[in-house]
Amino acid sequence: MAEKSDITEKIRNALNEIQPYLQADNGGVELVEYSNNIIKIRFLGTCRTCEMQYYTFKAAIEEVIKNRVPEVKEIQIVH
After folding, report:
1. 20 to 30 A from 9, CA-CA: which of 29, 55, 66, 68?
2. pTM here?
């Protein structure tokens, strides 16, 4: 079983793959917490209020994280 710190690093690396696309629109995403195979993320900048937030989450963030970090079973957005 992977160490929590190893999984957290994999999550951060996955989010870093997505960051340039979000930053291009003055936005971003950050990892708030990882616990019990659940991660909590927060949108930053213009992504916090963007009407496309759900689609960005589903098509980009969730897809990349679940492909790169299979240990993650759930992703929650916090404000």
Report:
1. 55
2. 0.88
Specify the DSSP class assigned to residue 40: E
Instruction: Give the separation between CA 12 and CA 6, rounded to whole angstroms.
Output: 10
* Average pLDDT rounded to a whole number, residues 6-30: 95
Find the angle CA(12)-CA(24)-CA(55) to the nearest 5 degrees: 70
So where are the chain's domains?
4-77
Q: Read off the tokens for 14.
A: 């996955």
| Integer Cα distance of 53 and 71 in angstroms | 24
Domain 4-77, what architecture? 2-Layer Sandwich (3.30)
Dihedral-angle region of residue 26 (phi above 0 means left; psi in -120 to 50 means alpha; beta otherwise) = left
CA separation for the pair 62, 56 (Å, rounded): 9
